Amino acid sequence: GTRPALSRWRRAPTLALAAVTAGSAACTGGEPTGPPDARADGALTIASFDFPESAVIAELYGQALADAGFQVEVLHEVGPRELLAPALERGLVEFVPEYLGTALGFLTGRPDAASADVNETYRALTSELEGRGIVALEPAPAQDANGFAVTQETADRYRLETISDLVPVAGELVFGGPPECRERPLCLQGLQEVYGLSFESFSSLDASGPVTAAALRAGEVDVALLFTTSGYLGGGDLVLLRDDRELQPAENIVPVVRADVVRRLGAGFREVVESVSRRLTTEDLVELNRLVSLEGEEPGAVAGDWLAAHGIVG
């Protein structure tokens, strides 16, 4: 259950954090140093959030671009969105693989800004980024959203395919999720309001992690929050119920890149990025996450294998 060591990339967080905080320290006297500007070094700086899936996705884009002859530096596990979003605006990093709905909610300060409609959410994100000098490129089919899982056995017993199918049986089922799930509109609260589900009880677990998978498999809970790209879905014994009433917003992987970089690197850059995005499916991410989080493989290695298998790198 422990996540693989990413120690060889640990230099990245300190570098980025130092860069973001250096700006405020620069006014305290002497020569203003300011944060190092990623645009000045000629290399494209791609940064990932502080969890393994984001590291894998950054590697997919980074390796594809490097193979196409672009000079690329990938910074791994840099930090949360609160750190990376301002770093991107200030040019400390130049490319961040984002998640559609969450990115839009963060930028607007409105968690409900995104809808389940990919095109609508993408248009809203594009216009939100425009004034910030940032471009959202074509989103991938792959989505990492909240999902609700049962064992294949439970699905068969109650004939469950959609979340709506839970309505007649929810009263006899135990629901599991992280403690904050109870009050979240995209978790238990949303299941109650949008689907009318009232479960027998709530069991406090981790956020789509090993505790949740074990509780489902042991029958301690019947339904649980599991992200749609969770590596635990790769075993075939856990299945997601279809969100038939569209409670979850579109959470497609979307590359967000500084507009000046897109202009400077031209159509060839966009082409390589979109060749990765177009092929990346939710099922692919389940498998990549399984290899990294459950099998302990390196993000760079699994990304390289995926790119080769799809003919993106030679």
Task: Show the helix and strand layout.
Elements: H1 11-25, E1 44-49, H2 52-67, E2 72-79, H3 81-89, E3 95-99, H4 100-108, H5 118-130, E4 134-136, E5 146-151, H6 152-158, E6 174-177, H7 188-195, E7 201-204, H8 210-218, E8 223-227, E9 238-240, E10 253-258, H9 259-279, H10 282-294, H11 299-309
Parallel strand pairs: 1-2, 6-7, 6-8
Antiparallel strand pairs: 3-10, 4-10, 5-8, 5-9
Helix pairs in contact: 2-9, 2-11, 4-5
What does this structure look like?
It contains eleven helices and ten strands. It is α/β, with parallel strands linked by helices. α2 links the parallel β1 and β2. 42% of the residues lie in helices and 16% in strands. The strands form three sheets. Strands 7-6-8-5-9 form a five-stranded mixed beta sheet. The longest helix is centred in the last third of the chain and has 21 residues, at 259-279. The protein starts with 10 loop residues before the first helix and ends in a 5-residue tail after the last helix. Residues 1-34 have low confidence and may be disordered. It has helices at residues 11-25, 52-67, 81-89, 100-108, 118-130, 152-158, 188-195, 210-218, 259-279, 282-294, 299-309; strands spanning 44-49, 72-79, 95-99, 134-136, 146-151, 174-177, 201-204, 223-227, 238-240, 253-258.
